[in-house]
Write a structure and sequence with these properties.
- This protein is mainly alpha-helical.
- It folds into two domains: 14-83, no CATH class; 116-291, no CATH class.
- Helices cover 58% and strands 8% of the residues.
Length: 292
């Protein structure tokens, strides 16, 4: 009751926090050496946060009850000092103290190793996150490049076909103009032409009609514009719900549920780059199939 849970020694200048937990002032100063007045700090025992006073941790409330209790313990210890402890009991206390001290050192080493392990894992996994982002960015860039190529190919086909259609359309329009001119001349001759005009123009109109009828409009269009079927075959990569398009994470070794002083080995994570190359090569198979 009179011992600090941080240094495990008898309280020195005990200070009580708002959560009613008491610690040595020097222990609080060491624990919060990176804190400034006004900052929030968690209780070393219950983790409940409190605000550091304006004059720092030295301004935390003194535990006057604990100071009185320590004074009483000091007086009681002075009285017991006069009593001689049996040698057998003394030896037991010495041995137990040695054992606990040794185990305390081992536990301290384990805590340090666990802290190091935590920092190593965080650093290693941060690198894995960077690898994932890099792989995903490369994949996105590859897909974007292929999309641009496909769209460019479609635009090229569209422009080529539109140009062909426009050319054939102009040819048919020219033939349509010739037909309309012939009909107009024929109707004029029939409606207002004299016998002399009829005799003079009939043969020439007949020759023009024969020439116009030689032009096979449908055949010309069909031969100038062969059928074109443009289709798009999408990638099948997204059909497999179990496949991760970026890669996979592999974790070897499991953190033991039981306490162990051994360093956890075989902890690794890696990106399966083969998945990236497979995806990239498959995207290259995206194509526009043109059949004529």
């Amino acid at each position: 009751m009179t011992e600090c849970c941080i240094c495990t020694e008898v309280f020195t200048d005990p200070r009580v926090l708002p959560c009613i937990h008491t610690f040595c002032l020097k222990c609080l100063l060491n624990y919060g050496n990176d804190k400034q007045p006004g900052n929030s700090m968690a209780c070393p025992l219950c983790r409940k946060e409190f605000t550091i006073p304006d004059d720092g941790l030295a301004g935390t409330q003194k535990n006057f009850f604990m100071e009185k209790l320590l004074h009483v313990r000091k007086l009681s210890a002075g009285q017991k000092a006069d009593e001689k402890m049996p040698d057998a009991l003394r030896q037991v206390v010495v041995e137990d103290t040695g054992k606990v001290t040794n185990f305390q050192m081992i536990t301290k080493d384990v805590l340090q190793r666990l802290e190091t392990e935590k920092n190593d894992v965080i650093k290693h996994l941060a690198g894995i996150e960077d690898e994932i982002n890099t792989a995903a960015d490369k994949l996105i860039a590859a897909i974007q490049r292929d999309r641009v190529k496909l769209l460019s190919q479609v635009r090229s086909i569209k422009l080529k076909r539109a140009k062909q259609l426009e050319t054939v359309k102009q040819e048919v329009e020219q033939h349509m103009t010739a037909l309309e001119s012939f009909v107009k001349d024929s109707e004029t001759l029939l409606s207002s032409g004299t016998t002399c005009d009829m005799t003079r123009s009939a043969n020439s109109l007949h020759d023009r009609a024969d020439e116009l009828m030689k032009f096979d409009v449908i055949g010309h269009v069909d031969s100038s514009l062969p059928p074109v079927n443009v289709t798009f075959t999408s990638s099948t990569l997204l059909d497999d719900d179990d496949r991760n398009l970026v890669g996979t994470i592999t974790e070897e070794g499991q953190l033991s549920r039981h306490f162990s002083c051994r360093r956890y080995e075989n902890w690794s994570a890696n990106i399966c780059s083969a998945g990236i190359f497979y995806i990239y090569s498959s995207i290259r198979k995206l194509q526009v199939i043109i059949s004529k």
